[in-house]
Structures are given as C-alpha cells and as structure tokens.
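Dear Dr. H.,

I hope your travels went smoothly. While you were away I took the liberty of generating a structure for the chain from your last submission, since the lab meeting agenda had it listed for discussion. I wanted you to have the full record in hand beforehand rather than looking at slides cold. The sequence, exactly as received, is reproduced here:
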Amino acid sequence: MQPNILFIITHDTGRYLGCYHKQVKTPNLDRLANEGAIFTNHFCPAPQCSPSRGSIMTGRYPHRNGLIGLAHLGFELNPAEQTLPTLLGKAGYATYLFGVQHESKDPARLGYQYIAEQEDRRAEKVAPAVGAFLTQRAGQAQPFFAMVGFFETHRKFAKNNIEPDDPSEVTVPPFLPDTPEVRQDLTEFHGSIAAADMGVGVILDALARSGLEKDTLVIYTTDHGIAFPRAKGTLYDPGLETALLMRWPGVIKPGSQYSQLLCNIDLLPTLLELVGAPIPDNLDGKSFLPLLESDQYSGRDHFFCELTWHDLYRPMRGIRTSRFKYIRHFTNVPGIYLPSDIHGSLSGKVVRDEYYKRPYQSEELYDLQADPLEQMNLIEVDAYSDVAAELRNLVTQEMVRSQDPLLQGPIPGQNSPSWEKQGYPSWMK
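The corresponding predicted structure, in token form, is as follows:
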C-alpha cells in the first residue's frame, strides 16, 4: 500500500531543535522524533534556500538542476527537470502545496496538482489550512503528497504572542561570540522556532483526528543551517546541517536514531522507491529506504556541497566526508560571507568587521573529528597533504563529471536589492 506523505519544511532552522539537544522548547517536533526516527547526520548540499529546496525537489545538485541561486532573483530549475510532486503524481498521488515554496516564481512549474492560495505563510495561518485539508481527505482511497512550508524560522523573525526566553539563560552556539546582542538575537529566534513547532502540533493533532495517522508518512526537515554568522551562506557544518525526522506507524520503529551520512538529494529517490515509482537514472541522490526497512545501509561516504549565487556572487565548491571538509573558493575576496539578512542582524553587527578583515584563503581543509568547529585550516599542513590532494581531486572530478558551469568562468546574476538599502559589505568597496 502506498502511504500518504505529509512533508513539512521550515526556513533556516538547521538542527536547532530540542530533539537535537539544543536549549529550545520544541515539544511537538520532539514528539515526532520520539514516535518515529531522527537522523543525526543529515545535510543539505547548498546553504541557501532555493538551491537546497531545488535539490529536495529533484534529487540533483543545484549546478545540475539549474537552481544555483535564489528563485526570486531570477534563477529557475531547468525546463526538463522532473520534480518530486510530478513524479509522485505519475505514481498515482494527489499532490498539494501549502504555504511557502522557494523553488520557482511560478509554483505551478513544480508540478503540484493543487496549490493553496495563502498570502500569509506563517505557521499560525498555514497549519489550520492543512488541518482542514486532512479532515476533508479522511476516507479517500487515493494517497496524497502534501508539501507544507512555513515562513518560520526565516529572518526577520516574525513577532508573535510567545513569551520570550530570558537572554541570560540562552545557550550560545560555540561558533558564535557570547555577547548581549547575540543572546537577544537568539531569544527572538527561539520565538520563531516555537511558532513553527506550534504549527507542527496543529497539523499532527489534525492528522490524528482525521484517522489518517496510521497510513501517513510524516517528514519534517529544513532547507539549511540557521540564519546566524558562520552558518547560513557558508559551507561550514552549521550552514549545511539540517534536521530530518520521519514517522510512519508500523514501519519506522519509534525512537529510532540513525547516524549514517545523508544528504537531502537522497530524499527524492527514497520516496520514489518507497511508493514503488520508477527512479530517474540521472540523479545524484541515493535511496536510503533500506535503512528504514532493515538497517542494512552504510550511508554515503561523502557529498558535494556548493554555493554560487545567494544575494551576492560568492562561488565555492566543496566535499564533506564523515571526517573531513574541503572547500575551494572561486573569487579572490577576503573574509567569511554573511548574507544580507545576517549582515544587518544583531549577531551580524557584532562579528562582521572581524569576518570581513580575515585574509583570503583559496582552499580550506578541516579535520572534523579533531576540530568540529572548523577553526584550524589544515590546507598547508604536511601531515594532511594526502587528504587535501584526494579531496581537491574529488571536487574537480565531480565538477567535470557533472559539467559544472563554474568551470566555464563567472556565472552572471544579480545582487539582492537588500544590499542597496543597507549598504554593501566592506569587502566589496
């Protein structure tokens, strides 16, 4: 039997959830993890919204599917790309979109059969609409695929009626400085997380009332890491790490934890294999369905990661293995990139002068086992020269194999108007 698939995605949340041992209250997402499976080593290949979401939609890296920058700044999936809702529709599913999508200016391009018209895409507005939909679906034989997107936890963090956390009690992530500004920024982020979690709770409760729960695979994920310095917009782990929770009563054992290395390009082939649909032969992703059915799955040994265009042109390519991270830069600019929303944030103002003064590095190499915060660049350390050579070659091979357009030179695009409003970063002047 083909299960219903309820896919919930939030913006910019990384793994910043209670079930991932972060000091934030997420009772509904924690419940989802406890009743199903939590994946502790799941990543995205691109640390920005549209490219990462496009990878979920196609099972292919951004430079292969065409979505190498933000959809609202002119980038689109290649015309021939087959998307998850299209492929599931061919497999007999009724396909729905609720709330946020950031893969195309025209959501109809993505292949959904039904698109809910909603101007306000915050969780408190989207979740009740999904709840009503679930009530209507009760008793229908045709399986459904519903993609549910919340605006949360994107900046600017939406104001809500949630009691704010005490900044003095916040745990500051170790890659950020512990300052009053960063603490205040985190408390506002916590409020946005709480709003998203409440929306998830509304949906889970409606699913239980509908009688569809036992026949529905629920998936929760996010597009990339949190919108804080040295995370979103970088190829460091805080930019690439993403939550993945899955619940499927009777199939996924409650309380399961999986630590195998996975990438979000693996979601599409996994879901297609799960429902018995043909899997295209041009994918970069690999199904991890065997992991759910029998635990007989070793995971991938690496994934390719990339950034081309975000709100500025900052091209880089990399490889992430279970132990090492290699990053190659393709523009001769100093510092650590901060997207415009982070540059202007409370946290961004604390670090940006320091970040923009850091010297240019054409390559970076980190031993994640010895240096999980990726602070010590080992690219010129003799003891790591073989690792550097292997991963350098692997990036080149992957770019050649996949006909990465960056090999042909700079890729045109446009800067976000947000930079015009607040002033460009100092490294561009």
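Two observations you may find useful: The radius of gyration is 21 Å. The chain has a mean pLDDT of 95.

With kind regards,
E. W.
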